[in-house]
Design a protein that fits this description.
The protein has 319 residues and is of the alpha+beta class. It has ten helices and 14 strands.
């Protein structure tokens, strides 16, 4: 990608201009015309680097829960499993990883019962077996911004957070009909036009209000990591006694985009999960090895992302 493309991505991942003519505002910041800014963003969308431009909402504040699920699917049945998962809108991510538990997918729904129903339905319909639904007891890092890598430590703009994943803290947001329509619309891709917000009929002040209320984590571009140059990815799981210290240390690592504490389960004795990203396998291994050493060489498993079967954004309040 051109240097201008990376400058654009670093801005619009978490700071897409909330103005009537956002590309004019972006152009002013970059010292280029509105048309050039728009053309570059459009090219990034068409090439697949940008998967979506829109709102990234806090599912918990909107009354939804998210669960990571792990299971086993025989290698010869992975294609049919992927087809079945593609039909389920509540499953947003689905990966094959290098472990005996070879399929890992994310389900978002209104209740634990709905999630269990989805997973048990997959077990009945496909060859998925030994499936586990994993809740997160603590979130150490989320919502990071991928950056152009000028060296092995300059990969991801850090936005660590420390947050209990329960009902404490911020009050749940109870949307009215107008809120539901706006959130539903902004959960999708905004129009490919110079005036996307007016074309949607959405008042920009309401978008800023969602950010102020923290029901929206950010408004901007969601990237496809591989197309953006981050070809090496792995979920690294650690078995540590002090999950709090380990989680915070991992959150400080520039290669880590997400980090959670989860309960171990039979056959998988790990309690801290971290997603590592790098531009090449060598950098990925170096980053993982460095963190393993920093954490005191705990028992750990490196689950390399072998294939992305599905990656979509959840659409809230869909009919």
């Amino acid at each position: 990608m051109e240097a201008l493309d990376w400058k654009i991505l670093e801005i619009i991942q978490d700071g897409f201009p909330l103005e009537e003519r956002p590309y004019a505002a972006l152009g002013r910041r970059l010292g280029v015309s509105e048309d050039i800014a728009f053309e570059h963003v459009e090219n990034l969308r068409k090439s697949g680097v940008i998967r979506r431009l829109g709102g990234i909402y806090d599912s918990r504040r909107l009354g939804y829960i998210s669960r990571l699920c792990a299971g086993v699917v025989p290698e010869g049945n992975l294609d049919s499993f992927a087809v079945a998962v593609d039909k389920i809108s509540s499953i947003t991510h689905n990966y094959i990883r290098s472990h005996a538990y070879n399929v890992w997918f994310t389900v978002i729904a209104r209740s634990e019962a709905e999630i269990q129903e989805t997973v048990r339905g997959l077990e009945a319909e496909t060859t998925l077996r030994d499936a586990h639904v994993l809740s997160a007891s603590r979130m150490f890092k989320i919502n990071t911004v991928m950056k152009a890598a000028t060296n092995v430590t300059d990969q991801i703009a850090d936005k660590p957070v420390s947050d209990k994943l329960d009902s404490k803290g911020a009050d749940p947001f109870v949307p009215n009909t107008k809120d539901r329509r706006r959130i539903n619309t902004l959960s999708k891709d905004i129009p490919h036009t110079l005036t996307p917000f007016s074309d949607l009929g959405i008042d920009i002040s309401e978008i800023r209000g969602d950010l102020d209320l923290r029901i929206m984590r950010r408004f901007g571009a969601v990237l496809r990591h591989q197309q953006a140059g981050f070809d090496a990815n792995a979920m690294v799981c650690f078995s540590v006694k002090d999950a709090d210290w380990a989680g915070k240390a991992l959150a400080d690592n520039s290669h880590v985009s997400h980090c959670y504490e989860r309960a171990p389960f039979e056959g998988f004795p790990y309690n801290v999960y971290a997603m590592f990203h790098a531009t090449c396998a060598e950098d990925l291994h170096a980053a993982v090895d460095g963190m393993v050493a920093l954490l005191g060489n705990p028992d750990h498993a490196v689950l390399t992302s072998l294939k992305e079967l599905k990656k979509t954004s959840f659409v809230y309040f869909d009919a």
